[in-house]
Design a protein that fits this description.
This protein is of the alpha+beta class. About 25% of the residues lie in helices and about 10% in strands. It is built from two helices and three strands; from the N terminus they run H-E-E-E-H. It has a three-stranded antiparallel sheet. Helix 1 crosses helix 2. The chain is globular, with a radius of gyration of 12 Å. The N and C termini lie far apart (about 30 Å).
C-alpha cells in the first residue's frame, strides 16, 4: 500500500514524505512568502499547533493553511529536497 498525501490523498511514489509534489510546491511558496495567506506562518507554535506529519512543534516553523493540517518547515524541507524544488 502506497503512502498518500495528507492534504489531497493522492498516492505517492515515494514513502515517508506524505506531501504530494503539487502541495509541496504550494506550501513552499507560502513559507517563502510568494503566496500570502493571513496567519499562515506560525513562528513559535504551541503543542496544539504541532506538525501533522512528524508531531513536533518545538524549534519549528509551522505552515497553517486554512483548508489543511499544520505542517512544519522540517517536513516541508524533506519533501522539497525529494521533489528537487527550489
Amino acid at each position: 500500500m502506497k503512502d498518500k498525501c495528507y492534504i489531497c490523498e493522492t498516492e505517492l511514489d515515494v514513502s515517508g514524505i506524505f506531501i504530494c509534489k503539487n502541495h509541496t510546491e504550494e506550501l513552499h511558496r507560502i513559507l517563502s512568502n510568494e503566496i500570502t495567506i493571513k496567519d499562515a506562518i506560525i513562528i513559535n507554535p504551541e503543542f496544539i499547533q504541532h506538525c501533522y506529519i512528524c508531531g513536533e512543534y518545538e524549534n519549528r516553523t509551522i505552515i497553517n493553511h486554512p483548508e489543511w493540517f499544520y505542517i512544519c518547515n522540517v517536513c516541508l524541507e524533506s519533501a522539497t529536497k525529494n521533489y528537487k524544488i527550489l
